[in-house]
Amino acid sequence: MSPGLEVMTTVAAYRAACERLRAEGGSLAFVPTMGALHRGHLALVAEGRRRAANVAVSIFVNPTQFGPGEDFQKYPRPLERDLELCREAGVRLVFTPSPEEMYPRGERTRVHVSGLTDALCGPFRPGHFDGVATVVTKLFAATGAAVAVFGRKDYQQLQVVRRMAADLLLPIEIVGLPTVREADGLALSSRNVYLSPEERQRALAIPNGLSQALALHAAGERRAGALRHAVLELVEPAATRIDYVTVAEADELRPYADDARVGERALVALAAYVGTTRLIDNVVVSEDNSPIRTPP
Ligand code: AMP
Lowest CB count within 10 Å: 107, 155, 209, 278, which one? Predict the structure, then answer.
């Protein structure tokens, strides 16, 4: 019989449960989420189970990473369904705190990771990565020694979290997993539920555009501008608004100018609105499979 799922809402109870599992001799994997779980999240849980004896998942829609006018209030929160999915996936602990629990009265501390947040989503979501780095620091501090599993769908977030954990000497190993996609290439996202059927169709321009960039790079194209414009050509007609399509150095996230040449590895990333829904996606050329390659 597999051990059951425990749900905790306070930091004290969650910290004690993590400590107990480690004391029982089991290593811990940690998967932070905002809930509305889908196959992408479950792939992170499965990787956690491969890497550790026990998996803890946090479900917390973090207010400090949403800007004014963003979707904090309407973000989906299907908690009972999420708990069921966690149970089926063999998760041991779910930590689902209130905002007051994570941000105690009088709180004043923010974690800022410089440089990595200057480009891509940074300028379009002021304060977003400070909110992310702050909440992930708190969650790591509550969890203690663990391997933490993140998705490369949020590539900039992954780089920020890696840097933060290393800089703050946290006892956490960070693992990044490839983006899980629908059969037609659209990256799974909790925000996809906002898309109307017609918008869902138009959103395919995003994986199609990224596939074009991968194909061009594979064919020898090294001009950053050519890769960028290949994506723009497909995404522009489909998007309501584009925040950015950027080709950047894959570790430091420094954007390439259009007239620069990229190396073997480069990040091609974008954020675009389809209707009122902001979607992000990315590929790392010479590393990622084509988003529109359907499984055999
Ligand atoms: P979220 O709940 O959107 O904050 O995401 C929680 C974690 O799941 C983050 O590490 C995300 O990068 C990851 N994630 C979200 N969507 C996907 C996906 N389609 N494939 C892989 N990981 C994902």
Answer: 107
Q: How many CB atoms lie within 10 A of CB 80?
A: 7
pLDDT in tens, 145-182: 999 999 999 999 999 999 999 999 999 999 999 999 99
Residue 188 Cβ contacting ligand 1 at under 6 Å: yes
Parallel, antiparallel or unpaired: strands 28-33 and 54-59: parallel
The stretch 83-101 carries a mean pLDDT of: 98
Q: Each residue of 181-210: pLDDT tens digit?
A: 999 999 999 999 999 999 999 999 999 999
SS3 call for 135:
helix
Distance of alpha carbon 269 from alpha carbon 21, whole angstroms: 38
Atom number, ligand 1, closest to the C-alpha of residue 178: 21
Q: Are 30 and 172 in contact (CB under 8 A)?
A: yes
Q: Please tell me if the CB atom of residue 41 comes closer than 6 angstroms to any atom of ligand 1.
A: yes
Percent helix / strand / coil, the chain, rounded to 5? 40, 20, 40
154 C-alpha to ligand 1 centroid (Å): 7
- CATH fold label, 190-285: Pantoate--beta-alanine Ligase; Chain: A,domain 2 (3.30.1300)
Separation CA 295–CA 286 (nearest Å): 19
Q: What is the pLDDT of residue 143?
A: 98
**Is the C-beta atom of 96 inside 6 A of ligand 1?**
no
Provide the residue ranges of all domains of the chain, joining segments of one domain with +.
6-177, 190-285
Does 41 qualify as catalytic in the annotation? yes
Ligand 1 pocket member 33 (CB < 6 A): yes
Using alpha carbons, select from 185, 186, 165, 188 the residue that is nearest to residue 175: 165
Determine which one of 38, 41, 112, 229 is catalytic.
41
Measured from the Cβ of residue 202, the count of other Cβ atoms closer than 10 Å reads: 18
Q: How far is the CA of 78 from the centre of ligand 1 (A)?
A: 16
